[in-house]
Amino acid sequence: MAGPAAAATLLWFFIPASTPKVTGITQITHDGFPMGNMLTDGPRIYVTQWRPEGMVLEQVSTTGGESLSIASPIKNMRINDISADHSQLLVSTTESTGSRETPLWIVPLPAGSPRRVGDIVGRDPTWSPDGRQILFIKASDFYLANADGSRPHRLVSVPASPFDAGFSPDGRRIRFSVHDQANTNSLWEVRSDGSNLHQLLKGWHAPPRECCGRWTQDGRYYVFESGTAQTYNTFAVADATSIFRKTSAPPTQLTTGPILYSTVLPDLDGHKLFVQGIQPRAELVRYDAAAKQFLPFLGGISATDVAFSRDGKWAAYTTIPDGTLWRSRVEGSDRLQLTYPPAATALPSWSPDGTQIAYISAQAGKPWKIFLVSAQGGSPEELLPENVGEIDVTWSPDGAHLAFGRISSLNTGTIDIQLLDMKTRQVSTFPGSKGLFSPRWSPDGRYLSATRAEGSHQLMLYDFRTQTWSVWLIEGIDNINYPYWSSDSRYIYYDSFASENPQCYRVKVGENRPEDLFSLSSLGRFLGTWGSWGGQAPDDSRLFVRDASTQDIYALDVDLP
């Protein structure tokens, strides 16, 4: 007969473990500036912020208070990891270099001269727990190198596009997030020797929508975020099961809206989680050249990606934060909602006769695809059956064709421009367009402009009369962001968003020297799924989206049993 101890053990086996819970919440910062990654050394939180003067590195007490800036000669840096002794930061940059991979740096704390990590170029670097190695990503491959950058070698290749990797506290495993062309985020794990690559929480959500996790310092829990673009929250899952537990418990939700919670960071004592609470909001503005100011447009609605009918009487736009498509008259009257959640929309384009609007839309588990909807409302129509990404649709002036960019692989960066016959619905590859995207048909129908995908520094021009491509403009280190034709087809307007001193430019057909129009340094711009939008009003004045969001750090008091 079983004794009392055995009976107690059996009973314990079937009793579910208590779940993690939040017991309190405290707001740490109150300035509302957009933020990047966070790190902590115990008493302080380090975070990058986008302020009016540019991107800066800030530190704030974990108990709250005023943020203090940390001077660094590295511009636009992204902090990725902090050393075990809390004396150094491992950083990359967000400079526009023509590649997602950038040089890696070590920045001493509290001050000192940064130094390069050998000649490594990569993204999302992190130290091993013993500080002897650095893990970093290039394309879809993970690499390991010595801490000084020497002897880099490929560890493993992973599906789609990996990001946000980190070691387990014992150094035996690596967990990371993966984004794929079907607009899903999933968590993956691999051993530190490159073996046993597998997806975590498979089947928990279908399609998956979790990412961006970190272990608690004792390794008992893994915390991460999960949700859609409109709503995401913080979750915790036990990392290992006790020998007395039959199975692991599913993840426990720790936060709930209406604030969006992201970028979870465990403290060093295991009693708190630091998260960023975001309330997305934007303001549509127009640059008034006479007043030299950015003034509200369409009443300053919280919207982006504005397109206008050819007669200039109607506008279509995507609202922020819900991502639905609307149309209205240019003074704001006769508003009509054209799409509904959960489908997200972007980059609408009016047909030349003003009866239809082409746009791109996506849901989790599906790539961005082109849809067509009547300007009077109705059921949207998906134009093509292919299961690849389609973006940046533009109409020919006669309405007979659509040109668009196609992304057939996130891993290889396979991009080209496709041409769709609207009568036959036949699709063909636009001649000579490999590696090009962001097509824009000139209003007079003579030209098609495009930018080169690698870095967006090169503006190309296709002349339908000569049926040839030519290099129109090379912008050095500046990027060519959201180019738009002037109404008379004589100029392309664009801006250099991802640069230290963003400007608005235009360049004339037949010339290769851009004209500097005005500075964008004072405009805090909203960053959406497809970057920071800039557009063109019917009178050729420039439109932008001012970021009116608030983003602050919160401390969650947690009970992690």
Describe this structure in words.
It is a single chain. By secondary structure, the protein is mainly beta. The protein has a 7-stranded antiparallel β-sheet with strand order 6-7-8-9-10-11-12, with no helix packed on it.
Keywords, separated by commas or semicolons:
561 residues; 4-stranded antiparallel β-sheet; 51% strand; single chain
Q: Provide the β-strand percentage band.
A: over 45%
The coarse overall form would be: globular
Question: Structural class of the secondary elements?
Answer: mainly beta
**Spatial order of strands in the largest sheet:** 6-7-8-9-10-11-12
Roughly how many Å is the radius of gyration?
Answer: 25 Å
**Average pLDDT:** 90
- Uncertain parts: 6-15, 241-247
Total beta-strand segments = 47
Distance between the termini: 33 Å
Helix fraction bin: under 10%
Determine the number of helices (DSSP H or I, runs of at least 4 residues).
1
Largest sheet: 7 strands, antiparallel
